[in-house]
Amino acid sequence: MSKPTLAVVGATGAVGTVMLDILSSRPDVWGEIRLIASPRSAGKVLRVRGEDVVVQALSPEVFDGVDVAMFDVPDEVSAEWAPIAAARGAVVVDNSGAFRMDPDVPLVVPECNAEAARNRPKGIIANPNCTTLSMMAAMGALHRQYGLRELVVASYQAVSGAGAAGPKRLYDELEAVAGDRTLGTVAGDVRKAVPDLADSPFPAPMVLNVVPWAGSLKDDGWSSEELKVRNESRKILGIPDLKVSATCVRVPVVTTHSLAVHATFAEPVTVEGARAVLDKAPTVVVLDDPAQGVFPTPADVVGTDPTYVGRIRQALDFPNTLELFICGDNLRKGAALNTAEIAELVAAELTG
Amino acid sequence: MSKPTLAVVGATGAVGTVMLDILSSRPDVWGEIRLIASPRSAGKVLRVRGEDVVVQALSPEVFDGVDVAMFDVPDEVSAEWAPIAAARGAVVVDNSGAFRMDPDVPLVVPECNAEAARNRPKGIIANPNCTTLSMMAAMGALHRQYGLRELVVASYQAVSGAGAAGPKRLYDELEAVAGDRTLGTVAGDVRKAVPDLADSPFPAPMVLNVVPWAGSLKDDGWSSEELKVRNESRKILGIPDLKVSATCVRVPVVTTHSLAVHATFAEPVTVEGARAVLDKAPTVVVLDDPAQGVFPTPADVVGTDPTYVGRIRQALDFPNTLELFICGDNLRKGAALNTAEIAELVAAELTG
């Protein structure tokens, strides 16, 4: 077949915007690219691959002739529309939570389980949650070498993980507090200084603060985000009995999630060995020379594609265990880039 | 004896300033209070207990007649001067790292090991590191009930943990970035926007960032801060074989350290049981109702005395294990308050 036709559903959102940038910079495997959004955004003109493209309203017909459809829309929109697109013949790559744990939907990180993308009985492939994704390339490489058994994770999650409203809110709060050098010293002073929290996507001030909450409340006090890290890591890595505990915390960073990871393996592991494994992983960059001030930080890696790993230490008291600090751009590898990579796997399969 | 004489060494520093506030608000057990600092700060007038007190320069003679001397100065200053004060008859309560692991110096958190303060062969009692201290009241209470065996900790540490220069730097950086709503989206853009990092106490931008580094580099890639969490927790709790791994990360918060704690016990533990134990601990406050948006955040608890615990969950895959999110003011319970509490134990012993 000639170059496949791609649809980008949710083209005007936070991830959609990064997706157009990514589609414009990667090797061009696509024929037509259709941009699709809610009727409210239809008619907007967006640039992709250097060309203006008019955004079309979501409808069943808009998928006619589409080979691959990327979805970055809320769960309920994906739940309704991904099957419609699939029924019209498109292979859907969905970045919502609607299908990730469906046993008939593969959950794919190309570095970990590219082959799973070929087995898609519903015509749908799911893209993992951004927090899980931020560590999968690195953890997949270590798992193949040492056999991953346990993960204890604490996250430092960027506000853009909550959508475009997240950065807007953080910038608003930054402007509200800048210049007052007394704030952050008395309980509640930051809460009073920022705009009304009723208008925030976050349950507490984000500026001069960290907030131990992301997602929605599930059983026994767990957040949806914390359970995603557990369930999605197990599915992607193919380790159904992987032991996982995560605590997810939002921090005043615009984009790029960080994770402090305590990882226990079946086999003995050394810092030198782990570093060699990670150095060989094509999409992983090791930044680990604290004597020279070298470790990954969100501000230094945002907007780039790799997964960055630093602070690699052998646990002193836990056998076969490494401590790591991992950073990944939650809009790129954590969302749009991984979606594009899955779509490219499908394109290669369709044209190959 | 009449009310004992107290010396505050390092009265003009970040912790010293909080100490004067604490001394002014707690039940007054002290006779004379002498304020002591480097010769550079001598002659300054500071207020404590509603009275002006002239700061005296550090000298051997200034300790004559002093019963208790609190030190909050750099390690090397404590190492030199605490023995001099002790030789002049003062009981030293030292908040530096100089003596914490000395087997002849007790390391005291009154909620955990008040009795240890009486056994001080060198006349010196050490106050723990602020990161360790932020969780000790809560972990001590849980240890007494369930028998603590393992701790995996990730920290979210405030900039004031680095001294008075930390908040100044963060406020400077906040002012430098406020109003630019593009920052934090391209690698290095924040680094370019903030004042010269050569003038910062931190190795990377703190605003719109998190930095996985605190303290100095020790063996095998560990930071001094991470090793303190391990060694000091073992000594305070009296568990020499406690398994500990910590990753210490600085976040853009002025004051109040937070810790994501994965704690494994000898005995089975439930959320309800742990909550009951923590509710009974006098200096611990449980803030844990995520359905109502209730969990501790630094901005909501800074400037207060308790240790706050929230997000209490039973680990799904690890037996006898709890996940917790703990906040504590690093200048109060994490430093000045605990020092004052130790000094009061000594005052009660001397006058009792």
TrEMBL record, chains A, B:
It catalyses: L-aspartate 4-semialdehyde + phosphate + NADP(+) = 4-phospho-L-aspartate + NADPH + H(+). It comes from the Bacteria. Keywords: Amino-acid biosynthesis, Diaminopimelate biosynthesis, Lysine biosynthesis, Methionine biosynthesis, NADP, Oxidoreductase, Threonine biosynthesis. GO terms for molecular function: aspartate-semialdehyde dehydrogenase activity; NAD binding; NADP binding; protein dimerization activity. GO terms for biological process: 'de novo' L-methionine biosynthetic process; diaminopimelate biosynthetic process; isoleucine biosynthetic process; lysine biosynthetic process via diaminopimelate; threonine biosynthetic process. Substrate binds at residues 157, 250. Residues 5-120 form the Semialdehyde dehydrogenase NAD-binding domain. InterPro entries: Asp_semialdehyde_DH, Asp_semialdehyde_DH_beta, NAD(P)-bd_dom_sf, Semialdehyde_DH_NAD-bd, Semialdhyde_DH_dimer_dom. Phosphate binds at residue 100. The active site is at 130 (acyl-thioester intermediate), 257 (proton acceptor). NADP(+) binds at residues 12-15, 40-41, 160-161, 330. SUPFAM superfamilies: Glyceraldehyde-3-phosphate dehydrogenase-like, C-terminal domain, NAD(P)-binding Rossmann-fold domains. Its EC number is 1.2.1.11. It is an enzyme of class 1 (oxidoreductase). Pathway: Amino-acid biosynthesis; L-lysine biosynthesis via DAP pathway; (S)-tetrahydrodipicolinate from L-aspartate: step 2/4; Amino-acid biosynthesis; L-threonine biosynthesis; L-threonine from L-aspartate: step 2/5; Amino-acid biosynthesis; L-methionine biosynthesis via de novo pathway; L-homoserine from L-aspartate: step 2/3. Belongs to the aspartate-semialdehyde dehydrogenase family. Catalyzes the NADPH-dependent formation of L-aspartate-semialdehyde (L-ASA) by the reductive dephosphorylation of L-aspartyl-4-phosphate. Homodimer. This is Aspartate-semialdehyde dehydrogenase.
